[in-house]
Amino acid sequence: MATETWEWGWQWRAACRGEDAGLFFPPSRFEPKAERIVREGKAKIICAVCPVRMECLEYAVRTREIHGVWGGLNEAERRALLRDRPLDLRLVD
Q1: What b/e string do you get for 21-51 counting C-beta neighbours within 10 Å, with b at 16 or more?
Q2: CA quadruple 17, 18, 21, 24: dihedral positive or negative?
Q3: Are 43 and 69 in contact (CB under 8 A)?
Q4: Which sign does the torsion angle of CA 62, 68, 70, 75 carry?
Q5: Which distant-in-sequence residues (6+ apart) come within 8 Å of 29 by Cβ?
Q6: Which residues in the chain belong to E strands, given as ranges?
Q7: Tens digit of pLDDT per residue, the chain (93 long)?
Q8: Where are the domains of the chain?
Q9: How far apart, in Å, do the first and last CA atoms of the chain sit?
Q10: Which one of 49, 73, 83, 91 has the largest count of C-beta atoms within 10 Å of its C-beta?
């Protein structure tokens, strides 16, 4: 499992390296739903081909990252993932 062998090294191999961070994180201003869906869709396309998508997602879930698209999931999708996980997998080391 990615969380047991997690190392910072996965970030160097991420498909999002060098991409516009604005695709993965919301702007500081109000973002209409339609714009958010488009922005997140573009980020998720990059995530879909990422060789370290699972490591990225596990990192975001373990650290309870509350902003942005990580491992192909947005904030709400990660909350749902946590809700649906068995209790023993929700614990943070």
Answers
A1: eebbebeeeeeeeeeeeebbebbbebbeebe
A2: negative
A3: yes
A4: positive
A5: none
A6: none
A7: 444 555 568 899 999 999 999 999 999 999 999 999 999 999 999 999 999 999 999 999 999 999 999 999 999 999 998 888 765 554 444
A8: 2-90
A9: 14
A10: 73
